[in-house]
Write a structure and sequence with these properties.
By secondary structure, this protein is an alpha/beta fold. Helix content is 35%, strand content 19%. An eight-stranded mixed beta sheet has the order 1-2-5-6-7-8-9-10. The chain has a two-stranded parallel sheet with strand order 3-4. A hairpin with a 2-residue loop joins strand 11 and strand 12. The longest helix has 14 residues. Bound molecules: iron/sulfur cluster.
């Protein structure tokens, strides 16, 4: 395999994911290009808020990195297009999807995680039609609440997003798992949940996942009460489940040598990626980067315990 000229790291993981098993992540955008600037975003402030699509990925670099991962990983349940921004901002996404399918010989299902903002465009729906699973988000069904939570690029209208999701459902043959981030006292009221339930009834997703903002974000504690969680789940029907139904103590620390500190932390106790995110106040991709280094050095190992992946020092 000839190594192409140095390019960004497009491939990360595979990382254990609650919904997708071992997921190999494909990062298509520079951090952080997005059409939204959600109050719960783990990647920090959106520095490039846009709806203009652009080409960013060097296909040769992506192919090289992907093939290496496919050869070295013992288990991959999904190849997941997501990353440091909104992936549908990448122009000609169909070329990327074709490359991913071809490299994995169509044996590994392909998932796309999107904020739904560009699904109202027929071109975008066409480009993504070959993936196996789409995980679109819909945090609100009223414009005011949508703007409060997702802080979209100007002129994005929630009714267009909902319309795009309805059209996607009609034309897309794969699975759609709709994701709703429930934010305390904002999209948890009777009125907001009723509007969401009415949108969901038209979209007809295969599943609905309610996410909770349990990871440290910029605006303090946004986790809804148990009563609010229960109410939303009941109103959104049987296909709805709560994904992050746990809460952890937030810890934000500054470290000068993160790799060393993660190693020292794991010496004291095994930890999951989520534990490390909380302990170090870093986003998932950053933690994975340091874990990758420690695993390659042979000082840290990954181990499954009761369905949860842990990282352990010095096995
Ligand atoms: S859509 Fe995703 S990447 Fe964009 S701001 Fe929201 S959470 Fe962050």
């Amino acid at each position: 395999m000839n190594k192409p000229a140095l390019s960004k790291n497009y491939v990360y993981g595979p990382v254990p994911s609650r919904r997708l098993g071992f997921s190999l992540g494909i990062d298509l955008t520079p951090c952080k290009s997005c059409s939204f600037d959600c109050i719960y975003c783990q990647l920090g402030k959106t520095t490039h808020k846009t709806i203009r699509r652009f080409e960013f990925v060097d296909l040769k670099g992506l192919k090289y990195q992907l093939n290496r991962k496919l050869l070295s990983s013992s288990r991959i349940d999904y190849i997941t297009i997501s990353g440091s921004g909104e992936p549908t901002l990448h122009k000609n996404l169909n070329k990327i999807i074709k490359l991913l399918k071809k490299s994995s010989q169509g044996k590994i299902p392909l998932a796309l995680i999107t904020n739904s903002s560009l699904l109202s465009r027929r071109q975008v729906r066409e480009e993504i039609k070959e993936v196996d699973l789409i995980v679109p988000s819909l945090d609100a069904a009223t414009q005011r609440t949508f703007e409060l939570i997702d802080r979209p690029y100007k002129n994005i209208r929630i009714e267009n997003i909902i319309e795009g999701l309805i059209k996607l459902r009609r034309s897309f043959r794969g699975k759609i798992w709709l994701e709703i981030m429930l934010i305390r006292d904002i999209n948890t009221t009777k009125r907001e949940i009723a509007r969401l339930a009415s949108a969901v009834a038209k979209i007809k997703p295969d599943k609905i996942h309610i996410n909770l903002p349990v990871r440290p974000a910029r605006y303090g504690d946004l986790i809804p009460s148990l009563a609010q969680q229960r109410f939303a789940r009941e109103q959104l029907g049987e296909i709805c489940e709560i994904v992050d139904s746990f809460s952890r103590q937030k810890q934000q620390k500054m470290f000068t040598d993160i790799e060393k500190d993660i190693g020292a932390y794991l010496k004291r106790r095994p930890a999951s990626i989520e534990d490390l995110e909380y302990a170090f106040g870093l986003n998932r991709n950053e933690i994975i980067k340091y874990l990758d280094i420690l695993i390659r050095k042979g000082v840290v190992k990954q181990q499954n315990s009761k369905g949860q992946e842990y990282f352990i020092y010095g096995l």
